[in-house]
Amino acid sequence: MSPSSRSRLELARPSQIALVVDLDATLVQSDTTHDALASVILRKPIRALALLPSLIKNKARFKSRLAQLAATDAATLIYNQSVLEVIAEAKRDGRKVILATASDISTANSVAKHLAVFDAVIATDSDRNLIGSAKAEAIAELLGGEPFEYAGDSEQDLKVWTRAQRVIVVNPHKSLKKKMASAGLNDPQLLGASKSALVAWLRAMRLYQWAKNLLLLLPVFAAHVSFTPVLGLKLVFALLAFGFTASSVYMLNDIVDLNADRLHPRKSKRAFASGRLSPLAGLIAVPLMLLVGFAFALQVNLGFVIVLLAYLAITFFYSFWLKRIAIADVFVLTLLYTLRVFAGAAVIEVKLSFWLIAFSLFLFLSLAFVKRYAELAIAERLGGKLLPGRGYKPQDAPLVMSFGVASGFASVLVLALYTNSDAVIGLYRAPETMLFALPVLLFWITWVWFQASRGKMHDDPLIFAMTDRFSQISALAITVIFVLASIGI
């Protein structure tokens, strides 16, 4: 073993067997090599291409070069609490604890320094890829043939487990259990259980966010367009197109924000941040979902495809740049909401009215500010830290609230002016009935910000609106009022 592939700590002959722990998907929930590669592909694509020859010829050298391009921040990783408890117990018993990983030595040392619980570290260096039999041999060399207990997670660990006196398996799946039984490993200690990949993918798609796409129906109702089967089919295609396209954007955002999300109390549970899905798999899924989305879009019309392309282009710039610029990010979010309204107009091939555009912009701007205000409230609860990956500071909260409340009240004013405009003639038989919607909308906006000021607002206003009783009642009331105004009551 080369000097760089293990620490210089000398191991005394243990009175009890040493505990050897794998890193990826064992000690930490994710695969650090996959995380680093995804980061390089997104931020340094040309250098990622330059890594391909080393990936094919020499995986050890590939990992070393990759670690240089995308250093792992051990503080942002999500650690497996069950494995940490096993390590803590071993330390209390006076046993030696060793980190053994196929990841690069620089990554392993970073983790070891952060946790400060390991007596030795063995990992891949530029000369040897420490995986399978190579890892088993390195452990045996380090321990001088002494017995050891090994905690791992994959089929690549079978070569190590067969040499271990005790076996710990983290989140085992069925195929791994069968192979372990075939290898004579019939009594392992199990930590956790494998989780459904399908469920993880569905969560990564954030299907609940598809509710936003119902904004496509707003122009249909506002223009009082007669419903037909052909229109219904077009609307279904449009909703699916926006759904798959938006999900691809959410996934891309999650991969770009991987480290920032891991520092967030809620976002750290997302599929990519938590390690349940590999970011590399996500980078493959993103273009596939885009293809599906635009396949549906082509079934609608050219105008809808153009709006969807605009949405995609703006979200791309938002993900990689605009989200980090305070205030600009909020206006971009507002535009993305409003583009859904434009998309609905494109489906029915009508021109949006000035009133609907103005109302949408002010209302969505208020909701975008709510989202940022809720995140600032979380930052304050975490001790006044900066929002990771954002351009805001906790002291910006009062200004964000004032901008948001003003925008929300402006949307009520636009609606009030609309009810007394010439535009309502011919659309509503009793436009004066629409006046009753004003206090309801005013109440709802006040309620939302009141909850936000009390720290009770979810950092995603959509989830709040879908689950909050008063929001549901307000939405139902406004719908009923507009229906009554339309039929002349």
If you had to describe this structure to a student in words, what would you say it looks like?
The protein has three domains: 3-194, Rossmann fold (3-Layer(aba) Sandwich); 197-352, Tetracycline Repressor, domain 2, CATH 1.10.357; 353-489. The relative contact order is 0.08. Mean pLDDT is 89; it is low at 1-14. The chain is elongated and about 90 Å long. The chain has helices at 32-43, 45-50, 52-57, 59-69, 81-92, 105-115, 133-143, 158-161, 174-182, 197-204, 218-222, 229-256, 258-261, 279-297, 302-320, 328-348, 354-381, 397-419, 437-453, 461-467, 469-487, and strands at residues 18-21, 97-104, 120-124, 148-152, 166-170, 189-191. It has 489 residues and is an alpha/beta fold.
Give a nutshell description of this structure:
The chain is an alpha/beta fold and 489 residues long.
Question: What features would you highlight for this structure?
Answer:
Rossmann fold, Tetracycline Repressor, domain 2, 3 domains, 6-stranded parallel beta sheet, 6 strands, 6% strand
